[in-house]
UniProtKB/TrEMBL annotation:
<feature type="domain" description="Glycosyl transferase family 1">
    <location>
        <begin position="199"/>
        <end position="353"/>
    </location>
</feature>
<dbReference type="InterPro" id="IPR023881">
    <property type="entry name" value="Thiol_BshA"/>
</dbReference>
<dbReference type="InterPro" id="IPR028098">
    <property type="entry name" value="Glyco_trans_4-like_N"/>
</dbReference>
<feature type="domain" description="Glycosyltransferase subfamily 4-like N-terminal">
    <location>
        <begin position="17"/>
        <end position="183"/>
    </location>
</feature>
<dbReference type="Pfam" id="PF00534">
    <property type="entry name" value="Glycos_transf_1"/>
</dbReference>
<protein>
    <submittedName>
        <fullName>N-acetyl-alpha-D-glucosaminyl L-malate synthase</fullName>
    </submittedName>
</protein>
<dbReference type="InterPro" id="IPR001296">
    <property type="entry name" value="Glyco_trans_1"/>
</dbReference>
<dbReference type="Pfam" id="PF13439">
    <property type="entry name" value="Glyco_transf_4"/>
</dbReference>
């Protein structure tokens, strides 16, 4: 087996999405393990803010060029070009591409141009289930998966889905996401919680990018049923296209006064740390990183039994799962947890235990380092 490479480029999306979070948290751990890490992207990934130093990790902004002949930007070409510069200038021998489109494609392209830097691609979910499955990107996504030197997926569900959608039979290694259990902890200061809820109120929370796949209207409907039976409040964290519909529905269901839309929020661990229940009714979810972050904060999860969620949330142990769209079942499950103090505490403790064991960085990061060494080993 080849050694773990000294210099690694990480290509990822910068926004508040889970793939950028995982790429950043992993890149920081790899840097802590003594490797020189070069992030490449359209903007500084939001969780990288404050972490760059003279000895790294480094960030290289993807260039762009607007020309009248081009009726749309070419992110893949711009990313390829910047990555090529980084590989050549810094003697990078491995590129970790997070998200197939356009990053794995750009990494493979840069490998062809430079004649070096092997490629490991991590599939995160929507790059396969939504974007990659679009006919407009099908061939390029399949090519990216087939031609990467090594491919990982964040859940067994996603690995299987990738094989089915693209008909590829190559090995796809499953490496689950991890959570920083030292940062995502229960917040016990009552003054922090008092900013959002009265002591007797149950505090429900949802964190996402408010895309249709998240079914944020189900979050509001579940909450409305819960709030009709017990004192409760809902925090909606994040931003995206479905936010206006969720806001309107909260008004229609009479819970607008008990619902707070906080938008994109960098300090998500504090909000999770004071919450009592996390809602994730997505129609599809390759993993559900936000649910894991909630579990680390001892927050039980009520979620849809969709995609890779059952690999993260253990039904009846760390939360409850219900069929997609079954608002009544989710509301019943939420009320069951919130009314039974022992159940609430035992589910919270089990979630924390999962974060400290199966999903701890000390377990997951070495799997990635081993995958890096494998990627460098010619087959
Ligand atoms: O949740 C999103 O829509 C964002 C998306 C992304 O690529 O940033 O998240 C995906 O990757 C996360 C990190 O691996 C997973 O936790 C999410 O489950 C996955 N989202 C979906 O599959 C919808």
């Amino acid at each position: 087996m080849a050694p773990i490479p000294e210099k690694i480029a990480v290509l990822c999306h910068a926004g508040a999405g889970g793939s950028g979070v995982v790429a950043t948290e992993l890149g920081l751990k790899v840097a802590q393990a003594g490797r020189e890490v070069h992030f490449v992207g359209s903007a500084v990934p939001f969780r990288l803010a404050g972490h760059r130093g003279l000895r790294g990790p480094f960030f290289h902004q993807v260039g762009g060029f607007a020309y009248a002949l081009f009726d749309q930007p070419y992110p893949e070409l711009a990313a390829t070009n910047t990555l090529t510069e980084v590989i050549l200038e810094h003697d990078v021998s491995l590129t970790h591409a997070h998200y197939a489109i356009p990053h794995a494609t750009a990494a493979i392209h840069a490998r062809a141009i430079t004649g070096r830097s092997r490629v490991i691609t991590t599939l995160h979910g929507t790059d396969v289930t939504l974007v990659g499955a679009e006919p407009a990107f099908r061939h390029t996504t399949r090519h990216a998966i087939e031609r990467s030197d090594h491919v990982t997926a964040v859940s067994a569900f996603l690995a299987q889905q990738t094989r089915e959608v693209f008909g590829v039979d190559r090995e796809i290694e499953v490496i689950h996401n991890f959570v920083d259990a030292a940062r995502f902890v229960r917040v016990t200061d009552p003054a922090v919680r008092a900013r959002f809820a009265h002591p007797e109120e149950a505090l429900l929370v949802h964190v996402s990018n408010f895309r249709p796949v998240k079914r944020v209207e189900d979050v509001v409907r579940v909450f409305a049923r819960v709030a009709s039976e017990i004192p409760a409040r809902l925090l909606m964290i994040g931003d995206g296209p479905e936010r206006p519909r969720a806001l309107e529905l909260a008004g229609q269901l009479g819970v607008i006064g008990r619902t707070q839309f906080l938008g994109s929020f960098p300090d998500v661990e504090t909000v999770l740390g004071i919450s009592d229940l996390f809602l994730l009714p997505s129609s599809n979810e390759s993993f559900g990183l936000a649910a894991l972050e909630a579990m680390s904060c001892e927050v039980p999860v009520v979620a849809a039994r969709a995609g890779g969620i059952p690999e993260v949330v253990e039904d009846g142990v760390t939360g409850f799962l219900a069929p997609v769209g079954d608002v009544d079942a989710m509301a019943d499950a939420a009320l069951r947890v919130l009314r039974d103090r022992d159940l609430y505490l035992s589910m919270g403790a089990a979630g924390r235990q999962a974060a400290l064991t199966r999903f701890h960085p000390d377990r997951i990061v070495p799997l990635y380092l081993a995958a890096y060494a494998r990627t460098m080993t010619p087959s």
